[in-house]
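Issue: ligand-bound run for FE2/S2 (inorganic) cluster - logging full I/O for the record.

Environment: standard queue, default settings, no custom constraints.

Inputs:
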Amino acid sequence: MTTEEQTPEDKPELKISETPAPRKPKQDRTPENDPGLWRMGRKNFFSYSAWLAFFGFIGISTIGTLRMMFPRILFEPTKKFKVGLPNDYVLGEVSEKYIEKGIWIIREVTGFYALIAICTHLGCTPRWLPTEEKFKCPCHGSGYYKNGVNFEGPTPRPLERASISITEDGEIEVDLSIKFLYEKGEWGKEGSYFGFTA
Ligand code: FES
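Outputs:
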């Protein structure tokens, strides 16, 4: 007899067990004790650690690159600057036009000099008192003549002068990085003064 000729009764009977093997319960802890998402095996732990290390590395590299693109540079104000034409200044006057840059420009009959507005006692900023024709420090009372020489108070020495010169285009230029000290005999040096008569 061929396969087609078999009747359903002739086919071997499939035996199905009536009591299936017990399945392992998915939840083997009480809800109160189950850590849920944080429950992980050793394998998962290493996998998470590896990903964490990877993203940490990427993050640190990115921060490093960004810092390289924006270096921390301290932009200091320039110490060399132009202060206008000689005839912008009145003869005999102490000009406070550039006091915010820390300088007084003084025009005399024979030329110009620039005094640095820092008291040589402890570094306060003196004030120019035009009626008394002197610089007076508000901190401890040191006083200086118009030429910068000290005459009263605790300061031990005159004000300092900054380099002053005239450029090719006829403007006055001051350089605060070059100083001239009276006590060192530097007030006669080139740069401490420039001659100008008009
Ligand atoms: S800081 Fe100017 S007198 Fe002391």
